[in-house]
Amino acid sequence: MLTNKAEVIKRLQQDILHLQGFKSKNSEEHLLGLGPVEAAFPNGIFATGVIHEFVSEGSEETAATFGFVSGVLSKLMTDARPCIWVCPSRNLFPLALKKFNIETTRIIFIETATDQESLWVMEEALKCDGIAVVVGEIPRISFSQSRRLQLAVEKSKVTGFLLRSFKAQHVLASVAKWHISPLPGLCLDGMPGVGFPQWKVELVKVRNGKPGSWKVAWMLEGFEVMGMDGELLRQGDLLNPLQKPPLKASHLQSKII
Amino acid sequence: MAKRYIAIWFRHLLTDWYIRKHPDCGNLPLVFSINQRGKQVITATSKKTEDAGIYMGMAVADAKAIFPELQVTAYTPDQEHTLLNALGQWCIRYSPVVAIDQPDGLLIDASGCAHLWGGEQNYLTEIILKLKAYGYDVRGAMADTIGTAWAVSRYSSDTIIVAGGFERKALRPLPPASLRLEEALLAKLQQLGFHKIEDFIHLPLNALKRRFGQVFILRLKQALGAEREDIIPIGVPPVYEERLSSQDPIKTAKAIIIALTNLLDVICHKLQQEGKGIRTATLLCYRIDDQVVQITIGTNGASNNAAHLLKLFELKIPTLAPGPGIDLFILQASLVEDVIAAQEKIWSATGSADNNITKLLDRIESKIGVGSVKRYQVVEHYWPEMSVQVIGVKEEQKMMNAGDNKEQVNLLQDKNLLLNLSTPRPEKLLPTPLPIEVTAPIPDYPPMNFRFLGRLHEIKKADGPERIEREWWLDDGEHRDYYIVEDAAGRRYWIFRLGHYAVNQSQWFIHGFFA
C-alpha cells in the first residue's frame, strides 16, 4: 500500500513536471555537459522551452555571463535553428563566439532603443518556433512582463534567456535564476597564462529543483565542472546524474561555496 | 470593349484656383498678367472680368481703365500644368488613365469605369459636381472619341453624354474650331463660309484634303473615330496595383484592415500565379478632403503571403490619419521579386517550407525601424573594432545560394577559422579603447597593476603580448601590443600598450572584458 502510494505520488510529480514543460528523463538530447548543474533541475535535465534569468553587475560579470550563456548556446544550437539576441547596444563581441564553436552569422542581433522595444521583440521572437534560443538584454522588467514571456514560451517551446542587471532584481516568472561571476582561470599542469575561463555558477533559484553553486570552466569543446578544492571532475569521471541524482546533488552541494 | 472618353474643360482654371486659395478676394475682378515686351498683358481672366469685356491678350492698363479696382496677379509660366497635374492626380480615383490636355483641360479614359458609379450619367455628374464644389467652373462631355468629347465639352452649352455612334450628329451643329484646328485654317474656313461642321462634313474627304491639308482630315477622322488617338496618362500605374473604393468614407482602423485584406488577397493571388513576391508595398488612401495619406512596408524576402503582409501593415495603421474619411484605397507593390523556393527554407530546422523567421524579422523591422536587425561576419581587418561587418539576411542568402561557388565559401570559412582560433577575442569589446594608468616593470612584460575607473587591479596572470599592427594602407600611427590579464579575483581584461615601450611615457588602454 505504502509503495503504491509512493509510486502514485511519483507518477503525479512526473506528470506535473511534464505539464510545466520539463522534459522527462528519456529525452537526453539536450545534455549540456554540465553534469551536477543539470542534475539540479527536475529530472536532472536542463530545462528548455522556459525562461532562464541571468543577473550580473558590472562589465566583468556581464562578460562572464556572456561567456557562460555562449557556452550553453553552443550546446543548444545543434541544428540549423538560429539564435536571436535582443540588445540595446552591441555588447557581445561576435568574434568571441568562435571560442564557443558558434558561427558568428548564426546569431541575429536585434538592436533596440528602449526596454519596451526589447520586450516587444523578445515576446514576438519567443512566439516564433524555428528559433533555438532568444537572448534578451533587458535590465528592467516587471513581474507581469516576465509572465507574458513565460506564457509565450509555454506555447512555442522556445528557450528564453533574460540577461538583467543585478541591481534591479526582483521576483520574476522565470523557471531558473542564475548568477555568473568570474573566477581565476583554469591552468592545467602548471601552464603559464590566464588559462581557460572559469566561473562561479550560482543557480539562485530553480523551480522544483535544488539550487546550488558550482565552479564551471569552458575548455575547448565543452564545460568542465570542478570541485571547490580545485580537483577536476572530468566529464567521464562524473557520477552519472541520471543514475544517482539525489546523492550526486547533495554531495556536490556540501562541497560548494 | 468600346472606348469611352471624358473631356473636362476648366474655363477659368487659374482664377478659380486663385479664388479657392484666397477666399477673401472672391468678389474682386481678377486677372493674371505677364510682362510682354515691357507691357503687362492679361493671360487669364475670371468669369466676372470676362463678363465685363476683358479678354486674354488685353493690356492691363486698358483693363484698369474699365475696371479701376481690378486685381492683377503675376502669372508664372507652367502654372496651369502644375495645377492640371494635381487635378489629374485627383481624378485618378475615377479612372487609372488620366491625361493632361494643355492648356486648360483633362482627358479621362473612362472605358469600363462608369458602371462602378452606377452608369455614365452618374459618373460624369459626380466628377463635374465634385470639381464644381471645389470652385472650378468646369464643363465636361463623354463620347467614344477624344475629339468629340473635346468638341462637345467646349462648344456645347451643357454637360453632355454622346452615345456611341452618334459622333457625327453631335458634331454637326458645332463650329469648326471644335475640331482643334490652327488659327490659319479656321480663318480659311471662315472665309469660305463654313461656320458649322455640318457645312462641310458631307463633302468628299479627298476634296477637303486637297483644300485644307492632312492635319484637317486627321482631326476630323479622330473626332469621328475613324482614326486612332492615344493619350499619355499621368502617373502610369504600376503593374501590381489594386484599387478599392468605398461608398461611404472610412474612418476606423477596423474598416481599413478589411479594405486592406481584400486588396492583399487579390494582389497576392496575382503574385502567386506569377511566382513573385512583394519586397516593398504602399497603401495609398485618398481622403474625401483631397488629401492622400500612405503607409509603406518592406520585407526581408519576397513574400506573397497575404496574412503576413497584413501583419506588417497592421503595425503601421495607427500612423494613418483618416481625417474626414477615406473613399479610395490603392495598394501598390512597388518592388516585386521572384520568390525563391529555397529562400523560404532558410533557417528552418526541419527543411520544411517554413519562413516564420523571415516573417518575424520583417515584423520587427517594420516596428522598430529598418537596420535594427543585424548579423555579423568576420572581415579581414587587423584591428578588433573593425574586424566584424554587418551583413543583412539577404546577403548571406546570396552566399548560400551560390552553390557553384562552394570553393569560395569554403575558403572564406577556413580563413575565418584561422583568424579566430589563433587569436582569442573578448566577450565584451568597448567601442573605443579607454585610457588606463598602468605600472609596468620592464619592456614587453605584462604590467603589474592598472587602475580603471578609480579601482586598482593587481594582475596575477597574463597572456601576451599579441601585436596587432595598424593597417598602414588605411591610416598611420603606432601598433598595439595586447595583453590578456587577470586580476586577483579572476576578472579578465584586454589591455594594450600603444607603440613601443617608453619609460613613463607608454600609453595604455583597456579595450575589452573576457569571460
Please, could you describe this protein's structure?
The complex is a heterodimer of chains A (257) and B (515). With 257 residues, chain A is an alpha/beta fold. Among the domains of chain A are: 107-162, no CATH class; 175-186 and 194-222, no CATH class. Chain A is 31% helix and 25% strand. Chain A has 6 helices and 10 strands. Chain A has a 10-stranded mixed sheet with strand order 3-2-4-5-1-6-7-8-9-10. Chain B has 515 residues and is an alpha+beta fold. In chain B, 32% of the residues lie in helices and 29% in strands. Chain B has helices at 13-21, 47-51, 60-66, 79-91, 120-133, 146-155, 167-171, 183-191, 205-212, 214-224, 253-274, 306-314, 341-345, 356-368, 393-401, 406-421; strands at residues 5-10, 30-36, 39-45, 71-74, 98-101, 105-109, 138-143, 160-161, 241-250, 276-287, 292-303, 326-338, 373-378, 388-391, 428-439, 449-452, 455-468, 480-487, 492-498, 507-514. In chain B, strands 15-16-17-18-19-20 form a 6-stranded antiparallel beta barrel. A 5-stranded mixed sheet of chain B has the order 5-6-1-7-8. In chain B, helix 9 packs across helix 10 (214-224). Classes of the chains: A alpha/beta (257), B alpha+beta (515). Chains A and B meet through helix 3, strand 3, helix 4, strand 6 and strand 7 of A and helix 14, strand 13, helix 16, strand 17 and strand 18 of B. Chain A: InterPro entries: P-loop_NTPase. Chain A: This is Protein ImuA. Chain A: It comes from Chitinophaga sancti.
Low-confidence spans of chain B: 342-354, 397-421
Largest sheet of chain B: 6 strands, antiparallel, barrel
Helix content of chain A: 25-40%
Mean pLDDT of chain B: 80
Query: How many strand units of chain B?
Result: 20
Q: What is the overall shape of chain A?
A: globular
Strand content of chain A: 15-25%
Continuous helix count of chain B: 16
Derived from helix and strand composition plus strand pairing, the structural class of chain B reads alpha+beta
Radius of gyration of chain A (CA) equals 18 Å
